[in-house]
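assembly run, all chains below
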Amino acid sequence: MTAITGSAWAPGLGYRIRWGVSDTLTLTKRSLLVWYRVPAYIFFTVIQPVIFVLLFRYVFGGAIPVDVPGGYVNFLLPGIIAQTAAFATFGTAIVLAQELKKGVIDRLKSMPIARSAVLTGRLVADTGRMFITILIIVGVGYAVGFRFLNGFGPAAAMVVLATVFGVAIACVSAFTGLAIGDEESVQSFGLIWLFPLTFVSSAFVPIATMPGWLQAFANHQPVTFVVNTMRAMALGGSLEPTLWPNLWRSLIWLVGIFVVFLPLAVRSYRRAT
Amino acid sequence: MSQINGVSEQPAILVEGLTKSFGDVHALRGIDLSVPRGTVLGVLGPNGAGKTTAVRVLTTLLLPDGGRALVEGHDVVQEAAAVRRSIGLAGQSAAIQEELTGRENLEIIGRLYHLSRRETRSRATELLEQFGLADAADRTAKTYSGGMQRRLDLAASLVGRPRVLFLDEPTTGLDPRARLGMWDIIRSLVAGGTTLLLTTQYLDEADELADEIVVIDHGLVIAGGTSEELKNRVGGDVIEFTVPDRSRVADAAAAVKPIGEGEPHADPETGVVSVGVGARGSDALVEAVRALDAAGVASRGLALRRPSLDDVFLTLTGHAAEDEQGGGRRRGSRGRLRADDERRGGPGPGGRSPREETARTGS
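ok done. output:
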């Protein structure tokens, strides 16, 4: 008795979730294919943190006294890994800006696909890329003397935390990429906020060595909490008592970043033309 | 609102009083359009006239400020999802993934239209053949020529078998040969019954492909009709010639003025002078030869022709459409063309019209 007309056809929630997942996976697959064709895109994500590991391990490290089990290389690796996760999101911002400029996003938005799929597909693919990069850096770390001292479980938890942190930063990057919409500006802007955020933290040096005004920032920003948590997970021992206070602060920050920047990214995607 | 699918009297595209502003820039100032099913509407206008904005509203990429627009009976704001199921869009640049092959590009689009794997594969193969890309199907799109990339982009817009297709300046930036190839493809699509809205700044393109043409300038429809009707508005035939000595262009225009039915138009940069002569045909031609001879002005290529859409544009807007091609592309390029002319420098022996440049880029 009811004729199906195009306008009256309202798909149910289950249907929408199913196709939302399908569209996300299709777009994720697209990114994976691109990287398969042009491995250089992955290579450059990996080479920068490898150089940083070697630089800090062998050039600066000798001059930085730290009080952690295993010395500076053990201090360094969790910090580098957090930074690697954050820097991997340069790619998120740049690719979105490129696709915006080329009209790829226009094409996708004019199609009957799940509205969220372009963003989620990007984030899923970039999370995969980030995860692989983190594993490679752990491997490079092992080659230059880094060791997990706290067992497999906490080590795995550290990698997961680094990845979740990276995804949170990826939401910020996705927002900047879509809001700015120009590849070069996006890249410069990324340097402006990601460099201070990752370097003015506990990632590379003990915060106590910084001038007081800088400590005030470094002691209260998310990268420090995340890196401290990762370090306690990786090394345990004397750092064990620092785990919980840093972990819950990290989680509050991460939730806060998601709550603010995911909607902003979605909004800038909807408005992007 | 409710409507019944398949009512053929309903136009494929219906636009009423559509407005859209970006801050102080009034990109659309109330346009009306109606495109019957299975026909081609050519939207003609210079850069910044509002063509792209109109396409973006109709393809649900932009929300209009006022008025309404229906595509296949669906409101582009209220029923955007239904509109997206009926349309295809190919924009001004090739929105393809250059790192992937032509086939992969189309297959990803097919999967996003939720075609089955088998359908996706056969649809991609079919389109690659139709667009002359079968031999290049498994090469990465990076290796394609500009024309091939645009054909792939057009193919991508057709994967979902849209009933209404929007082509925003489909041949901008293509060399003349690739342009002709694109025209053939567009003609074959139209023969298949697709409704097409095509924007262009090339007058010959609208003339060639469109059933009906609307001329847009500064966000308003300033004229509409068939190519023939628009040409009649110029009022008959046109005499046109080139004055090789650029300093004598004004003299030439003055000499032929008494013959014309309106003011002659003289372009000091290219030396081209044209004047409408109504229905007097070859009599006017003889008079023009005599007048130029009497004024002592040498001319080249003196001929009587049917009015082109260039003449229409000139009559309607008081400025030539092609003046505006020197401007920037897409967003932020809404400046008037006169300014561009000034920047490009005055007339000189080296000065070539943009159209000549377009022609020369080919070959």
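Residues 1-8 of chain A have pLDDT under 50 and may be disordered.

The CA atoms of residues 49 and 84 of chain A lie 6 Å apart.

not gonna interpret more than that til we talk
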